[in-house]
Amino acid sequence: MRILRADRADVKSCAALDHFYTTSYAWRFGEQEEGGTLSFALSPIRLPRRARIPYPKPLDHLMADLETSACFLVARERRETWGYIDLRLQGWQRAGWIEHLVVASERRRQGIGSALLERATRWAVAHHLRRLMADVPTNNHAAICFLQSHHFVFCGFHERYYAEQDIALFFSKDLP
Q1: pTM
Q2: What pLDDT is recorded for position 59?
Q3: How many CB atoms lie within 10 A of CB 129?
């Protein structure tokens, strides 16, 4: 497998990947106000049955992302695209926002996402960024676990962030 800077042909194959995910877990988000204190809690819950979840972000902007992204990388073997990562630069924060990190469904859990993230992290460090950021819907348990296993920490949320009005959880990783 090779990880390369994406070109226009790669973007078309990236858009053609299966972007859905399946899960048996989601994260329940709760808030409580008591005595002037507002408390939030996140806890994983088991769903009654495995669910197939559509990707929460539109893909019609991928070609524009290629032109405006700081770092758009593709993982491929020969002519087959296995995954991609799209990193947008937030200059004033010196942060890289992961817009998309997608691996073909038949290639998941084989280290491809980790390899893409590692290469994007090296790019970010070389460009003097201070942190990487990612947003994840509460029902994408696998992505939350993936980010946590790569030393990302929960740093906030936004209700009704996605088009379907789902809650986004934000994760951050400080860079050396």
Answers
A1: 0.90
A2: 85
A3: 23
